[in-house]
Amino acid sequence: MRANLDRRNALHPAVAVLCLCMPTLWNGCGRSQPPDIAADIAGIRAVDNHAHPVRAGEGDREFDALPVDNMEPASDPVYLRPGAPGILEAWRALFGYSYSDLRPEHARGLPPLKRRAIEREGDGYPAWVLDRMGVETMLANRVSMGRGIQPPRFRWVPYADALLFPLDNSHLAARNSDRKAFFADEDILLRRYLREAGMTSLPASLGEYLTRVVTPTLEAQRHGGAVAEKFEAAYLRALDFDPADGATAAKVYTRYRAKGTPPDDQYKLLQDFVFRHIAKECGRLGMAVHIHTMAGAGSYFEVRGANPLLLESVLNDPALRKTNFVMLHGGWPFTREITALLEKPNAYLDYSSQSLLLPPATLAATLREWLEWVPEKVMFATDAYPYSDEMGWEESGWIAAHRAREALALALTAMLRDGEISRDRALQLARLVLRDNARKLYGL
């Protein structure tokens, strides 16, 4: 069951099965056979809107500002458990794994196969993985880029969360063990941004912090090739970035800059003000703003705080209409709520992570709703991530890319079946989702 997407006419096995089964399903309903679109979809080279590629063989930890591999135990989704569906097929397609099972005595042969591929491909290894995923360009959500993860195949999306939390975060970190680890990571990243801005400590005023640290950091990242800024804020606080008065925010900053822990409500006001400043600057610099909108990793994640409807005041702010916002992961479980937000002129979404964690048939139903509403705002993505030794960014990316295509084929075929679209329109929609919407948004 190999899938070699270097050859554009190659079909992923699940899509091939779909192609074979559809005529039977249609004829059983007494209707004419639908056009075969799965093969065309399999051959479209995609733009992956969100992923975390890893530099091979370097002990790389910059694939995430908030790595989720040191959290308290949680109930893992089925598709992330050991031996999850798709892993075997990914090992075969990527590394030539020859067994038909994942028995430990057989699985021990995978690391040598992977090392062999890394040594053979060298700096070209990450791009080699993209070829097998059927991906032309991947937006790399990383603290920094590095060897083998460079344009034009990879485009940078750095992190902006640390800039929201310049004061004493000890009270926020005390909420639970996950946030304790996360705020420690954010403090480290903020100090890095301060050093890169030529500062050894926080400036005396909020105005100076914005002009001497925040804006220069964004400008430097844009100059370094960034096409967007990423917020993982839902892991740290809710997404209700409300309008905030600058003078009041400045007082909070000045009072607590040197010592003391700000009360949560006052600190939130400062965070809200800085977030909108960053969003406005991203619009000026031609960068999009990426925001995590989905239930997240860990047993302490506050799901309601990731509801994309909390972003409505941001999307409605006239001062931010020049900034494009991409709601990553499609808002699951708030997929219907996020659909309505697509009417906002600067609102976009991708279905990263859903393409890995949900069966194609489940995802297809959501995709169909989005495509029936505002299809020009929907983008393919994988959220390729190094979840474990068994499922690295390579395997998770390969699985997600193939499930994403299968779900898209199912959604478009259902629309064809119901007479909503023609075959030409179906293929146009497929190209929009898989590549054209992202290419237009980022000017690729």
Give a structural overview.
This protein is of the alpha/beta class. The chain is built from 17 helices and eight strands. The chain has a five-stranded parallel β-sheet with strand order 4-5-6-7-8, sandwiched between helices. β5 (288-292), α12 (312-315) and β6 (325-328) form a beta-alpha-beta unit. The radius of gyration is 22 Å and the shape is globular. The two termini are 33 Å apart. Mean pLDDT is 92; it is low at 1-33.
Order of helices and strands: HHEHHHHEEHHHEHHEHEHEHHEHH
Shape, please?
Answer: globular
Which parts are unreliable, with pLDDT below 50 for 5 consecutive residues or more?
A: 1-33
Q: How would you write the strand order of the largest sheet?
A: 4-5-6-7-8
Radius of gyration: 22 Å
Helix percentage range: 40-55%
Give the oligomer, counting copies of the same chain as homo and different chains as hetero.
single chain
Largest sheet: 5 strands, parallel
Number of helices: 17
**How many E strands?**
8
**What's the overall average pLDDT, rounded?**
92
Our measurement of the CA-to-CA distance between the termini, rounded to an integer number of angstroms, reads 33 Å
| SS-derived structural category | alpha/beta
Strand content: 5-15%
